From TrEMBL:
Source organism of this protein record: Zhenhengia yiwuensis
Sequence positions that bind Zn(2+): 182, 245, 261
Pathway: Metabolic intermediate biosynthesis; chorismate biosynthesis; chorismate from D-erythrose 4-phosphate and phosphoenolpyruvate: step 2/7
Alphabetical UniProt keywords: Amino-acid biosynthesis, Aromatic amino acid biosynthesis, Cobalt, Cytoplasm, Lyase, Membrane, Metal-binding, NAD, Nucleotide-binding, Transmembrane, Transmembrane helix, Zinc
Residues the record lists as binding NAD(+): 103-107, 127-128, 140, 149, 167-170
Keyword Calcium attached: no
GN (gene name): aroB
Function recorded in the entry: Catalyzes the conversion of 3-deoxy-D-arabino-heptulosonate 7-phosphate (DAHP) to dehydroquinate (DHQ).
InterPro entries: Dehydroquinate_synthase, DHQ_synth_AroB, DHQ_synth_fam, DHQS/DOIS_N, DHQS_C
GO aspect biological process, one term: aromatic amino acid family biosynthetic process
Protein name (database record): 3-dehydroquinate synthase
Transmembrane regions: 96-117
SUPFAM superfamilies: Dehydroquinate synthase-like (SSF56796)
Length: 360
């Protein structure tokens, strides 16, 4: 087991382990709830709800609510349904919400927790690579709105993140691989030694060796927490966590979510590295390093025939636009990112064409 304290200012523990046996003790350390509502989805609920409930025991009422699994549930309708479920069991501020599942569950349950009765405590039990290494910490919660991803939400931290890495065993391979893109991102923007580790340990990580996964998750979470610690509300430094996302989000939308988030982020990271190379920020060999790392983890499948004009339109309407400018995260070295808001349409087009040519 490993333990990390996220956020020095308002700390919450991140427990990394390989079963659920310490769950109750970990909750007791941070809360003393009168009742618990476990929010999950139909897929994860089927796999882990019974075990988690058993671990929680019978001392207090434990309710559950499962919504239909998938990004299509990430909208305000699901939020209202959960408010209704909470009201039906008279949940008040002395209650606790548990998010049991991947990124969509964490984002939805966290948003409910941030807004129900102006905020009640919640904890995260992330069950996917994305959730364990990225979305369960940092406090971003919310839902999609109309066509816009994560358009409505809040910053609201959990009281605890309890990660059982064995839950990854039931994750489809495509999702496992896709989620790893966020881990690679943390290495590329923040930690060259982690980049080296990821190359060295790739076989063990892909085989889901417990020790390697726990070590990887620990380092990944630490990198993210260090960034969030400095800039929780994404006014400056935190923007680097969006490396690969400006183009990645556009691709996600353009593929009608047929491509997974991490798959798009991987293409986006190579495109951003290409722009960085074009500007002379990094050497050609560093661009190849980014590609090799993604390929080592089976990312960068052949790139589809996406319409460049539509992609550009999505990018130009990026929700992170400020004062009319889109922020881009570029690389200055492996393990070092910078924020630029002067990337031109031509640079983006060339980067898309580069990935189209390289990923065949
Ligand atoms: O935590 C952050 O900050 C991130 O940007 C992490 C991203 O990997 C994650 O996809 C996040 O949900 C993106 O948020 P958004 O604000 O760009 O929608
Ligand atoms: Zn992401």
């Amino acid at each position: 087991m490993r333990r990390l304290e996220a956020m020095e200012a308002r700390p919450y523990p991140i427990i990394l382990t390989s079963d659920f046996s310490r769950l109750k003790a970990a909750i007791n350390e941070v809360a003393c709830p009168s009742a618990i509502m476990i929010i999950t989805d139909t897929h994860v609920g089927h796999l882990y709800l019974a075990t988690v409930k058993e671990e929680l025991g019978e001392g207090i009422p434990v309710y559950d609510y499962a919504f239909k699994a998938g990004e299509t549930s990430k909208h305000l309708g699901t939020i209202t349904e959960i408010y209704n479920a909470l009201l039906a069991v008279h949940m008040d501020r002395s209650g606790l919400i548990i998010a049991l599942g991947g990124g969509v569950v964490g984002d939805i349950a966290g948003f409910v927790a941030s807004s129900y009765m102006r905020g009640i405590p919640f904890i995260q039990i992330p069950t996917t690579i994305v959730a364990q290494n990225d979305s369960s910490m940092g406090g971003k919660v919310g839902v999609d709105y109309l066509d816009h991803k994560n358009m409505v939400g809040a910053f609201y931290n959990p009281k605890l993140v309890y990660t059982n890495i064995r839950t990854l065993g039931t994750l489809p391979e495509r999702e496992f691989i896709s989620g790893l893109a966020e881990v690679l991102k943390h290495a590329l923007i923040k930690n060259k030694a982690f980049y080296d580790y990821l190359l060295k340990e790739k076989d063990k990580i892909l085989q889901q060796d417990d020790r390697s996964l726990i070590e990887m998750t620990y380092t990944s979470c630490k990198a993210k927490c260090e960034v969030v610690e400095e800039d929780a509300k994404e006014l400056g430094l935190r923007k680097i966590l969006n490396f690969g996302h400006t183009i990645g989000h556009a691709l996600e939308t353009e593929s009608h979510f047929n491509l997974l988030h991490g798959e798009c982020v991987a293409y986006g990271m190579v495109m951003s590295a290409y722009i960085s190379y074009g500007r002379g920020y990094i050497e050609a060999s560093h661009l190849k390093d980014v590609e090799s790392l993604c390929r080592a983890y089976k990312l960068l499948a052949p790139f589809g025939e996406y319409d460049i004009h539509s992609l550009l339109q999505h990018i130009l309407y990026d929700k992170k636009k400020a004062y009319g400018k889109v922020s881009f995260i570029l690389l200055q070295a492996i393990g070092q990112a910078c924020i630029k808001n002067d990337v031109t349409q031509e640079e983006i087009e060339e980067a898309i064409l580069y990935v189209r040519k390289t990923c065949q």
